[in-house]
Write a structure and sequence with these properties.
The structure is a homodimer. Chain A has a domain of 122 residues: Rossmann fold, CATH 3.40.50.720. Chain A contains 18 helices and 16 strands. In chain A, the strands form three sheets. Chain A has a seven-stranded parallel β-sheet with strand order 3-2-1-4-5-6-15, sandwiched between helices. A seven-stranded mixed β-sheet of chain A has the order 10-11-12-7-13-14-16, with helices on one face. Chain A is globular, with a radius of gyration of 23 Å. Chain A starts with a strand and ends with a strand. The relative contact order of chain A is 0.16. Chains A and B meet through strand 9 and helix 10 of A and strand 9 and helix 10 of B.
């Protein structure tokens, strides 16, 4: 009998918990779900003699040591910056661990200790990062196996709303943490390489540097660049690749409209507005516009950002959000980003029966037998409703499968890893098909 | 006999040292100049039985305590962030202190300790901040004295090149720390209030929100907003003022061209470019432009930033800087801001005989006897050459005069101050006239 300790039971863990519970008997597992919110956690795991919910504070060293010491594997679904104390205890008690988060510097620094203690820590095995690594490495290895050489690699992922629930001019709703959506792209210049030339994009230009892609059966999307793509050259062992570009997908037109908020400064989270609870949505927009004693907020905005008077596609998005209305902001001492998030949440929240959609698209250009070839690979996953979302599935299932593989001894190389090895991606991708998470490949030339 | 300890003998301290040396005999002072670079310091103070130069490391606690303990007053001309350890020692040894820097949070926090120990610390008594406080408070107090009420206050200062040395299309040269010029406006949104409405400008819009002002005899200037103007409402005791705006002056056209570098991301100091020493100036600009297999860097730049093909005034500024040339960048692992600074230093450095110029301009709108009135007050100071600059004079003389007043017991209120009291601004402004630092006032209506 094996004990699984799942730490953190937030919104995106429902499919992970489903999977673990479905396999308790067959695999002879016990599951402990540890979260700050015990009632919510209890409601998620239901009643089962093999499950228990505990109230858990990751900063409580005694409790953390005890629970980690009692488990055979630890799955941490905490926010990224909270994994480290868990990882250190895992190494101390020689327990394996799985997370869906980006490997932080602090996590990377644990590599040699993990190896010395025979501990395996798998990270970046959710969705972007996660399924993108699995599916890209599969194609890259296949191309190499027949003697091809990868010349260019681009990969895009988007968490969007499914077409059947898409009923607003932005073609967008919040399907994960709204704060992260508002702050997306902040925290350093975006870096990539294109056709052998390094490219750097500052935040205020990011949403004007989009590419259009098409996914068969799902129409057009636009992509903007994501964080530091350069470091993935070494991660994927593509040191000499001429293009390495990781991006985020939205429906066409989103980025141009979102850029309005970026240009205004309305996504700034670095200072608070002292009188924010005295302001209306309209006042909020006016904070960022040059003073004019007679012009309306709408007119000032159009002039300031050089919008065409008849640019209906752009302006209807802004109006639909209610940003020109005189609704009061109920937040005290809030940052611009917090106020904008509040305004967006009034409009962009999923309804109970809304379905979300994860779209992933890879483009590989490679040379084979002296010819240049192009291959596209894409995945579309839809949620069932606003609880069992595509986001929850694509994050949760690969995490669960990786945990199972570690428990069954199929992943057993100690160290701090991301899932780029065939021994991991092949079985995970295979099992993901059972859940409708599936890639279509298309040879373009 | 009084001992003056001057810590930090950088470029802008020459006039301060001149003043102190000129008054050594008359005032019965000894002067110790403490700096990391002893040779440079020695050359500055010449030979005089009342002066000495010492090699000084502000982080050497023993040396710091000893020298501060031996002095009667400490003038710190160190970079702003290095004043705190000096200020703490001044409080410990009950010594008064003068700096030209903005009062930091850490400095402000020393207020009650300073009072308890009977120590006076005068800050912000150079130029912007400094002479702007002195001259503005003089007019504000005069208006109040006759029963007027200040409705609006705007103040602008610029460190520029004098017309007779102005020989480039930017009408600009570096007259103080080039790094601060490249990074100007970064580090948080600009905040001010205009006609009763709060306004916030993000960095990427700052250089497009300029105002034009004219100074009689010196032509037109443009101003962009400076840091947080809001806090100066309480500092100047103008809590209900409808406009409070502090800005920086450049010659018209500067900001629009500088904005090109801001938009590109070329002023970013947050990341390094790994292969910077392999790049040319032209490659550097190309890092920020969207990839295109055929278009020239010039054409891509024009398209990207929506420049008109015939916008000669803008484009000649960029070309004149040499940014399209294939000169190698000799810096390893440099940030964009460091590379841009290097490029600018090739062109914007003062020649030996060049004169700089400090321009300050205040606008007061006030009500008096039921009527709305407007008064402008302005100051223009030119340097003698590239050593005895206007910057050195306008920073150094008020600092020196404040130090003298403290030594003579004319400033004796303990605490952390900025020079807004009549007891300080009146005598300082009066003495500054001897050095050609003088305001003209003009009643507009």
């Amino acid at each position: 009998m094996k004990n699984i300790l799942l730490i953190g039971a937030g919104r995106s863990t429902i499919s992970l918990i489903d999977y673990l519970i479905d396999n308790l008997e067959k695999e002879d597992w016990n599951l402990t779900v540890a979260d700050q919110n015990i009632d919510f956690t209890k409601s998620k795991i239901g009643s089962n003699s093999r499950t228990s919910a505990i109230q858990f504070d990751v900063n409580n060293e005694e409790q953390r040591s005890k629970e980690i010491g009692n488990a055979d594997i630890i799955i941490s679904m905490l926010p990224a910056h909270m994994h480290i104390s868990v990882a250190k205890d895992c190494i101390k008690f020689k327990k394996n661990m799985v997370t869906a988060s980006y490997v932080s510097k602090e996590m990377r620094a644990l590599e040699s200790e993990a190896i010395q203690n025979g501990v395996t820590i798998i990270n970046e095995i959710g969705v972007d990062p996660g399924i993108d690594h699995l599916s890209a490495m599969k194609v890259i290895d296949e191309i190499r196996a027949v003697g091809g050489e990868i010349l260019e690699f681009e990969t895009f992922t988007g968490g969007l709303v499914a077409p059947e629930s898409d009923d607003n001019p932005w073609n967008y709703k919040f399907t994960w943490n709204p704060r992260n959506v508002v702050l997306a792209g902040q925290g350093g210049a975006v870096k990539f390489i294109q056709s052998g030339t390094y490219k750097y994009i500052p935040y205020h230009k990011l949403f004007r540097r989009t590419e259009i892609i098409e996914v068969e059966g799902y129409g057009k999307f636009e992509g903007y660049a994501n964080r530091d793509s350069l470091m993935y050259r070494s991660v994927y062992n593509l040191e000499d690749v001429k293009t390495m570009y990781r991006g985020t997908l939205r429906r066409p037109g989103f980025s141009r409209a979102w850029n309005v908020f970026v240009q205004l400064g309305a996504t700034d989270d670095s200072y608070t507005i002292a009188n924010s609870d005295e302001l209306t949505f309209r006042d909020f927009i006016n904070l960022f516009l040059a003073y004019n004693p007679t012009d309306s907020v709408e007119l000032k905005l159009k002039h300031y950002l050089n919008m065409h008077q008849d640019d209906v596609a752009l302006f209807e998005k802004l109006e639909w959000l209610g940003i020109f209305e005189t609704t009061k902001i109920p937040l005290k001492n809030a940052t611009p980003a917090q106020i904008l998030q509040y305004i967006l949440e009034q409009k962009w929240s999923l309804n109970k029966d809304d379905k979300d959609m994860i779209v992933m698209w890879h483009k590989f250009i490679f040379s084979l037998n002296g010819e240049e070839k192009e291959l596209h690979s894409s995945m579309v996953v839809k949620g069932e409703d606003s609880i069992r979302t595509a986001m929850a599935k694509t994050v949760g299932y690969p995490v669960a499968i990786a945990a199972k593989m570690i428990l069954n001894g199929k992943i057993n190389t100690p160290g701090v890893h991301i899932p780029i090895m065939k021994e991991i991606y092949e079985p995970v991708l295979k099992e993901l098909k059972n859940f409708g998470i599936n890639f279509s490949e298309k040879q373009i030339r």
